[in-house]
Amino acid sequence: MRSRHLAIAEHLFTQSYPSLQDPKILVSVLQNLLDAIEEGITERLEIAREQKKIPAYSTTLNGKLTAFKLHLSRDLTINPVDFMMISELQELLDQHKHAPTEFRRRADFIIADNDFTLHKISPEKTKTYIERTKSFLSRL
Description:
- The protein contains five helices and three strands; from the N terminus they run ααααβββα.
- It is mainly alpha-helical.
- It has one domain.
- A three-stranded antiparallel sheet has the order 1-2-3.
- The longest helix has 27 residues, at 24-50.
- 26% of the residues are buried.
């Protein structure tokens, strides 16, 4: 399965980020990865729903994840680490959305919450997320 969002994330990371050197691009990469994951999960859930293998499920991302975990993850040999990655992506993007302060530190993008707890988005970690997302989507 090849997602348009995954292709965008890879392009942003391999083409735009190196040429612009703007760590804010890493946030867009993470958002596209999460969109690609949601798209893949939705597609699998819709197929299973059409085949009447699963009951109705919530259309929110968390609802889809719950239905996917309960009904499909065992059949597709999805690793619990994949769900941890999805949770990390959701958390980082949520922190970014609500953060009062964000700044650049070398190649990293730093998000500071109200308590000044720092959350780092680095190019290395982003590359790992891309690889793990590709692996996850290939097993769908």
